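Hey, I'm writing a tutorial for new members on how sequence and structure tokens pair up, and I'd like a real worked example in the thread rather than a made-up one. If someone can provide the structure for the chain below, I'll link this post from the tutorial.
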Amino acid sequence: MAAKQDAPTATALVDPDGMVSGWSEGGRLLLGWTAEETVGRPVTDLLVDRPSDFPESLGIGSDPTGVVPLRHRDGSTVDAVLTAHPLRGADGRSLGQVVTVQPWGRRPVIADRAFEQCPFALGVYDPELRFLWVNASACRVMAHSEEQVLGEKYRELFPELDDMAYTDRLSEVARTGEPARLITVFRPLGSNYANAWATSMWPVRDADGKVRAVANWGFDMSAEYWARQRLLILNKASGGIGLTLDVIGTAQELATTPVPGFADLVTVDLFDEVLRGEEPPSASAFTPGEPIALSRAAQHSAEEDTDRAPGPATPVSHTPGSVAARCMATGRSTVELAAQPGQGGEWAFGPGLAADPAHWPPGNPVIEGSIAADGLTGRITVPLRARGALLGVVAFSRLDRPEAFTADDLILAEEMTAKAAVAIDNARRYSRERTTALTLQRSLLPQALPNQEAVEAASRYLPAGTGAEVGGDWFDVVPLSGARVALVVGDVVGHGLHASAAMGRLRTAVRTLADVDLPPDELLTHLDDLVLHLAGDLRPAGHFEPTGESGATCLYTVYDPVSRRFTLASAGHPLPLVISPDGTRTPVPARPGPPLGIGGLPFEATELELPEGSLLVLYTDGLVESRERNVDERIAELLRTLNHSATSLDALCDTVMDAMLPERRTDDAALLLARTHALDPHHVADLVVEPDPAQVPRARKFAVDQVDAWGLEEASFVTELVVSELVTNAIRYGEPPIRLRLIRDTSLICEVFDGSNTAPHLRRARAFDEGGRGLLLVAQLTQEWGTRHTTNGKTIWCAQALS
């Protein structure tokens, strides 16, 4: 049974033979034995277990202190601390020992010294937070002596700490009796540094369990705390810098991340070439003695709104000899510290913060009094370098705070800058490639829609957002013979320069095949074969990804304003939307064929007759794709956005693009709107020609009369001549039926149809040939001519420009 906390101390005299020769009253109170019962008996009778080497185990002649179990008079056991002190006579002869017996749990004097000399700050307070006891370490932290604080209330002695976490938690422990732990960061009196303290608090109870006091201990963990804070800032930088492939955005991320935990003001200055996506200037580009011109890409201070969007870069200049200029010239960082008043220009480095000069790289820190005029207590200037190239310079400044930058802070600043430099250089390279691809793509797209009367057309193309590469979307409007027009949209799967180049090849191929006047399904068949050949020719021998047009889609449509027929075929592309003049959607009974490049599968053409004024909507999938909603919902939204009654198709294009496309786009989007026109029936004239040479004069007269009726007398001679030649060739070399058609559009069109599939050829007749000059004359006298084939014959046409 353990002794009670308030048990007395026993003292016994033991002679050299181990016999008890004296016994104190404390011994009776502690063990229950009286002096009469113990004196003259062996001291070992008091032990519960008698060791064979006792009294050596007691410590006599060796260690003077030991803990042993003693026998109480009532038979119980008392764990006690025995301390033996030898007794000697004047002649040095041993007279025995003085043995002190204390219950285990009583604090010996050495314990008092241990607590007093503990390097941790220790303190005991009553429930009202009056100081009961503190050790020397606590006095040093408080900058008060023990005599100054004993009996004083904590809140009254240190009013600046009232209602702070530490004081409130002490009160809470006294009130609830529950222990607590916390980390507090505060600046001790007389210190220029905020220290971090790990503190434990616990209640002190009496024998009845009542809280009589609150004790605490704490130790300065500033070095560990600030090292962890630097890791947190670096982790924040790792996750917050380089989120976008945008130079200005990345610079702003670098400026925002370390504020306010590390610095109060951060500026990022970059060369203009970096902002434009170009290669940064080399060292030879700098003129000695001349200022270095940069642009402030980002600036952020603790007083600014952290959510403020990045603004445009503003010009800045760094004079020769300035810290920023020297850092860029040498490639080394510089730390400037403002001199503290009254310290002779020397900065008092904080303990435990790796701030002593031994940790600094050569040349750092620089005690610079002039920065105090700008309200700075310290500044770290770091050159912004990536892959051996200088991109600019970064400055981290502290305002109105006494903590000086440390050598570890310099390492953190350089780590953040290095990460940002790589991200900025990646953004610069991406910007250059994206600009190149976008320039290539825009140069391959129509710069203006051609002049024709079949439809009123407007278009828009928007590349993907800044964080995505340029894609391969395209559109085209191709005038065809017979006043018809082809409307085309397509999309090459993939992004970047390869997609832009592939788009250019496909658009050129479509225009070439359109000039041959192939029907939509036949045109896509030829285009599919072409894609297969190109993919095979461009496939590299190595393991790199092929650069062909595999995965491309295309929608090819033809509208005839004379018949109001709309013919279309799709190679894996979304079908067009057709909206009638009354605003209702016209179903398109067609099914898209396979994408280009698969081969072996047919394409089907579908033909519709449209009322005049119908709205045709051709688009790429980037306009309707969304991660939040399916395609059908997006198409329904597109239909709601389309206002058929809009007078301006250009304005309608803008409305659709603004409504359908989010600010952060991941894909290109192309839109082509066309409102159909119908050619006035009085501007079309037809004549059926019998296959007899005698019908040629009749055809000539029909053409001249019609041209005169249209008020185009100046075109009569040429029209009569080309009609004579084309009708004569159809009668002589073609097959019935033969039909002549004149169309007045932006040009005067003459068409001769016959049932033969033989194509005419332009050739140069010899001097004495009787024929072979007909088509040559037609080609010389008209603006253009050509042949288009149909399922039951061919049409030879020519067009004259109308002044």
